[in-house]
Amino acid sequence: MMPKRRRGWPYRYVVPLAMVVGLLVSGCGQQYVLLHPAGPVAQSELHLLIVASLAMLVVIVPVFVLLAITVIRFRDKPGNKAPYWPNWHGNKKLEIIWWIIPVVLLTVIAVPTVGQTFALSKLPKAKDPVIIDVTSLTWKWLFQYPGQHVATVNYAVIPAGEPVLFELTADSPMNTFWVPQLGGMEYTMPNEVLPLWLEAYKPGVYWGHSGNFSGEGFEKMFFNVKSVTPEAFQQWVKKVHQTAKPMTMTNYHNLLAFNTVGVQTYSNYPSDTFPAEANGFTLNGEGMYMIMHDQHGITYMPMSDMSNH
Amino acid sequence: MPSFVQYLIRTLFPHDVLRPTELGADVMILATGVIIVYYLTKQKKWLYLWNEWLTTVDHKKIAVMYLIAAVAMLFRGGVDALMLRTNLALPTTPVISDLEYNQVFTTHGTIMIFFMAMPFIFALFNAVVPLMIGARDVAFPRLNAMSFWLFAFGALLLNISFVIGGSPDAGWTAYPPYTGLLFNPGPGENYYFLSLLIAGIGTTMTGVNFLVTTLRMRAPGMTLMKMPMFIWATMATSALILFAFPPLTVALAMSLFDRLFGSSFFTLAHGGLPMMYVNLFWLFGHPEVYIVVLPPFGIFSEVVATFSRKALFGYSVMVVSIISIMFLAYGTWVHHFFTMGAGPAVNAFFGLSTMLIAIPTGVKIFNWIFTMWGGRIRLTTAMLYQLAFIPTFVIGGATGILLATVPADYQLHNTYFLIAHFHNVLIGGTLFGLLSGMYYWWPKMFGHKLNERQGQWAFWLYFIGFWVTFGPQYLLGLKGMTRRIYTYPLGFGWHELNVISTVGAFIMGAGFVVMVYNVVWSLKYGEKDLTGDPWDGRTLEWALPSPVPEYNFARIPVVTARDAWWDMKQKGQTLANSLRPEDMRTIELPKNTPVPFLLGLAFFVVGFGMTFQWWVIVAFGAAGVVASLVYSAFDYDEHKHVGAEVIRRTEAALGRLQG
Amino acid sequence: MAEKLQFQSELASGREHEGEDEGLRFLLPKFGEEKFPWIQVWGYIGSLVLTFAALFMVVDHVLPPVALLSVILTLAVGQAALQLGVFMHVRESRGLAWQMIFLGLVLLIAVGMVGMSVWIMLFKSGVS
Amino acid sequence: MSLPVAEENLEQHLPLEFSDEKESIKITGFWMFLVTDVLIFGSLFSSYAVYRSAFAQGPTPNQLFTFGPVILETLLLLTSSFTIGLAIYAMRKQNKKALMAWLVVTLLLGAGFVTSEVHDFVGYVASGATWHQSGFLSAFFFLVGTHGAHVTFGILWAVTLLIQVARRGLTPITARKLFTFSLYWHFLDIVWIFIFTFVYLNGKIV
Lengths: 309, 659, 128, 206
Ligand code: HEA
Ligand code: HEA
Ligand code: CUA
Ligand SMILES: [Cu+2]
Fold this sequence. Notes:
- The structure holds four protein chains of four kinds.
- Chain A is α+β, with helices and mostly antiparallel strands.
- Chain A has helices at about 15-25, 40-75, 90-120, 230-245, 250-255, and strands at about 130-135, 140-145, 150-155, 155-160, 165-170, 175-180, 185-190, 195-200, 205-210, 225-230, 265, 290-295, 295-300.
- The radius of gyration of chain A is 27 Å and the shape is elongated.
- Chain D has one domain: Cytochrome c oxidase, subunit III, four-helix bundle (Four Helix Bundle (Hemerythrin (Met), subunit A)), CATH 1.20.120.
- In chain D, helix 6 (about 95-125) packs antiparallel against helix 7 and helix 7 (about 135-170) runs antiparallel to helix 8 (about 170-205).
- Chains in contact: A-B, A-C, A-D, B-C, B-D, C-D.
């Protein structure tokens, strides 16, 4: 009934095997975007991932080994000489050990987790960061530069080597704004504006995608973020102002249609296409503000003044 | 008249959703229906069906119905999975369109969680809990039947959506505003909300029922600390159900109101806050994943002790850990939306609370291993699932911890890394646990064993298939592949891994086929269980004959030890040899009633009517609901009596009487 | 021949308070008796007093908003306790008063749910 | 439980509704149901708390609410909670007539409450404050409306109970049913106190 040959293929080899095969077939390389960060945010997130994974290995390996030994040693087969203690039902010391081990390991993960969570929520000091207002539309991305007065669709250009502040909202179902090599994702939601800062170390092109399902054309919501030197960035802005037309309200309404489009560039945009007010955020984790956009740029208004809206 | 018929057809089968696969499903369902009707009529089984099954309140029969439904839904969800996987292996020539793909992953997730895992759990609760605690039935047998029929009709409502009108397509999480009328005008999401609301009422009632059963119906002497672990798991699960389902009900209702009655909870205009749905959904959703994993934990605790022929290691610590998991489960929900911009304090808090769950869970893992240490391990199918569960779940748990590491989750959220995580815990934990329980308790439910050799084949196919499917998905996550896409460009290096993953899925599918073969074969040729105790079990259900007579225990035993039956066997006292003919008493049992079935049907009518906003039909259904409730309010005829003489004869026939 | 088993009838009366459940004995019920429903009357008066106290405090704006809200919520909690104790006979049950344990739990969760939701939803801050 | 429980235990000093073990288990069950209902309202209160300032173009609580009808409703409900308490008191004294009388009074008070609330709602809607207007109004109508629906259901339930008591008198079963009804009714009173405080009074604080 219990065939002995089953022992030949212990399951504990399956995972590593699958991983190795996977790596061989696909070729380890740049395609593992999460393992090849191109900016400080993604870098610190990867760092944490590695720390936590190592801590996990510290539990996984002993558990697997222990399990294997137990099963092999205490199989119910004739002539097994291992001890048999049918009534052994507890051991205080052992049990205390495995309350403690996880606590220690988790502390190792928890401390940097909390630290990084708070650290990432603060925009590093930068004089006048480039601000990009991101709106997810049904199956396309709209990027507006309130400081530069340019707008793009389905691609963005950022200066390398300095933090960029993205302000995210949606005029569509929820999506997430994600450029894996630059950093983790954040939701775009209607009636809310959320902040996200990212930075690219070097000039380069990094792909981004939406991570939250939003309907039919969702899988086409790829976009590229071009990181260029700050000077090239200024030149790009200048060039857009010279060559592109401003976005009209009609253009915007066309973008609201449920479809996918290619890349587009505009030299300006109507001011009321990004929320003037919404549930807001702070940049330093204190107090509560609301973002006000107008022709002069952005002001942060304390929440307490909000009641007269 | 013809115009009305045309209207009906146009609404029920709108052009834009009626596609070949649906037509195929349509024809299949119709054909199955015809075959069933033909068979029933030919065998003159209609009355039998009605008397013995549709109106039954016997927990053992309800268990069987739950089990059939669960396995059917595993098939349905599994076929969905194979469709998903096929598409993902062929990114350049998708087999099903994006619209269909969206419906398929939605029904896959919804069915697997709500209509496969949940009823499977309730099947085992119903089959085992009253027997384990030495009771005649659950606390509220009629409520139990109502729960079942509400579940069954809820499941039916979701399943007909594939054929009539169009399926939901917003994922099992159904985030607004995508579920709003602006983006999703068809009836699909109505189906989703209504079927979950109806099934949810049933589930909540099941929670109440089993909580009270385990709190109040235990045999004398079975104090809290003498309860089998499975009973602890039942208790904790039921409590979680009580606490978790209300937020879901409210979230679903809000979405439904937005769609049907013009409220502005989650809409783009009028200040809607879609994130509130997310908040309420996960207030339910996270406890839900523990609802589906705690019962398997209980099952494993029984299985591992039985097949190691050894007492469970660290019982009281196991109790403490299950209770703390229950509590902690309620305080971690934000980890599903770390990326929705709640402040760093919120994220840090919920990241830590999530990690805390690893501690009691880890304790359980170690205790299971040490239960085997110093035992004699028999590698039956049930035990193999247990052994596979440990490494699979530990990996799944560990990747869960990586997701709980907040900044790492910013990267991993909604990628295939997440998909792999939750299949690791849902299949490695929940499904393996439930299958283990099925193989373990099958003899008790049906009176024969499942063939071991075939069972082990199915096991190995599942287990190997599992890792071939989901191992590569971790790598896909690291390559940035996001979930819920029906196709993808080739440049990202996602294709090869997806092909491997798809191959794995088909291996699992083969496992399922072997399992079904195993069940069908064993129904005919399976080894009969004549002793009632085929595994040398430890808990009270093994004291009874298999299958169990309607009244369960001829006399309720008094419990004096933790593993009650094991203890009795050690002391040489067994129920069989100590019952004398004159010990028999008349037994009061709950009486069959058609109300639960009719109530479920009425709710179904309401749900169907509301899906299409046909208020006349809704009114009919609502009248049915009210009528059922009023009828049962005035119905005092709840019990029947089984005479002592009948019991004496039955027990004697089972060879369980002295002299 | 094995020893004879005990059956439930022999133990029926003692079943709910036994062995390890001992610690929860304080929960065992007392069913009170009274000549006149004084408790109910006092309960009614109490609830009226609490309600109108809250009402007047709000109408007269006796405190700054946040403090005022906290005070009236406290009064509401007091009133809930009154209803539970006086009218709902919380401590009564046969066997252990499980409802007390679950009520405690559910109140904790309900309050946590409201508070946490506000914390999560309305106090957005931070850049990730 | 098949065993000789029911007859044996009747002589204990237990109130009628607890005297039969099966019926007493149903009371525990009803408490557990109330637990879920507490959380239904907990979720509704959470939503209300979050949507409280999502006015969009609609009115604010301060503009919307008037105290008059709300105080009336509060009084009606508090009094009905008192009278159902008296009904249970009468039930424990085996006084069927008094029980039924108090139950009828309770019902009438409840009906008065529902009438006043419906009148309120009609007024709001007539003034254009529908729940389509804003998230705040949606949350308000959903919370208060769910409570109102509970009260309405309670009234219908009590009617069926009156018929049962009239027909069958006070038995362990009818007594248990009445007792669970009283629990339900007091529970609704508690919920209303929180609605009164957190919705209406709080709406007037700013
Ligand atoms: C059975 C179901 C189940 C179970 C048990 C779990 C268990 C856990 N889950 Fe999982 N989870 C899901 C089902 C489940 N999950 C589902 C379905 C989703 C996605 C839903 C969707 O979006 O569609 C999800 C998503 C999900 C997320 C959200 C990710 C995202 O969307 O971005 C997170 C983040 O924290 C998470 C974490 C965890 C953790 C920490 C555990 C822990 O409980 C695991 C604890 C176990 C262990 C850790 C292993 C054993 C322990 C030891 C051997 C001791 C030593 C260990 C340590 C020291 C670490 N899960
Ligand atoms: C308990 C829950 C459970 C279970 C058991 C499974 C089982 C499986 N799941 Fe599931 N899955 C979920 C819960 C579950 N899943 C959830 C909650 C989601 C999220 C949904 C969402 O995003 O909203 C998800 C999403 C999900 C995805 C992501 C889709 C996407 O985001 O685009 C994928 C992709 O690979 C997948 C694959 C599989 C596979 C291959 C199996 C295999 O185990 C299945 C094995 C197959 C069978 C058991 C059936 C075999 C059938 C046959 C052999 C039929 C033969 C045919 C004929 C005779 C006609 N699942
Ligand atoms: Cu929608 Cu006004
Ligand atoms: Cu979770």
